[in-house]
Amino acid sequence: MNFQIYFASDLIRQLARPQQGYYVVGYKIAKVYVAVQLTTEPIAPPPHLSSLTIIGSLGLPQVGDLQFGYDPTLKVPYIDVHDDCTYSIILFEPPNFNNLEYLSVRPILLQSMGKESTPNEQDKYTAKLEIFEPSTEHVEHNSVASSEIMDKINLVLKTRIDLQASQKKHQAPKSGSIHPLVRIIVQLVTFLQRIIIWLIWTLNYKVYGYSLVSVSNVVRQLDLRLKQINYFPIQFLCYYDKSILYNEDSPLLKNLKLPIFNSDLNINNSNYINLHNSAWLMFNDILMGVLVHDLIIQNFDTVTTFLHKTFIQRILYSEISTLIHWIATHHPAGFKLND
């Protein structure tokens, strides 16, 4: 029987330090272990991390299922084996959710894309034959291909933060302890957010079935940019705390009208793509605006001369005057449009 142990590589630096011993805290899923943290004392995980447990120990009497060791020459952990089982240790670098990183073994789909089934004629016959297939025992995934295991690996750093916060048991700071500058920033951001939401509502307000967004491409682009700025905080929030995406009845998501098709953040959902797209589009708009502004300022005389001579004088005045003169001299009675 083979067991897989996914061991965060940044924990190896902690193993190299001289200590009396460590408890290895992590998750056990079927025949797979995910090592999350090393502690010098037993832990009491918070309720939302109830599946977190001590999976083994190092330099201490065995606690949990595994007895770890450390090879200072190779600088890798190993398992003291006392049975016929085999153990495979896979080192991985924990994805940093603050940098919008995560691991995936499947293609990443855009959040607004769903899996579209394309039934064909053969599917009907396949469904009829399925009732004659013998029932087989359910086999659990015992590799990184399992979405549950991948989920634990991707949330290693966030689990550590939650675990440390629960151990410190810090109380929430009182409102009086907030720095005055922070209050000013919060009020300013709230004020700007209200203005943006009001502008979006105004641009989409319909009068006799028409709105500014529906009749003007310029206003439509403005509406898109305002929504990108307005959605930017919630996009990062959904990536940081995926439980928001799991709650499809959330009034926040309904009001923002975010597309919710996938419940698995690590494989199907790609909020980090949406977040990067929004950041890039906003940066691209600013970059293009600065570039066009500098070009106009540096070539102001050339631009104004071009607009005056080519657009205003020639197109709007000379050519229209020539056309009117031609009609007045050659066709004073006008045109006969039909016989």
From TrEMBL:
Q: Which domain of life is it from?
A: Eukaryota
Q: What are the BP-aspect GO terms?
A: GPI anchor biosynthetic process
Q: What is this protein called?
A: Uncharacterized protein
Identify the GO cellular component terms for this protein.
endoplasmic reticulum; membrane
Q: Which organism is it from?
A: Suhomyces tanzawaensis NRRL Y-17324
Which InterPro entries is this protein grouped with? PigQ/GPI1
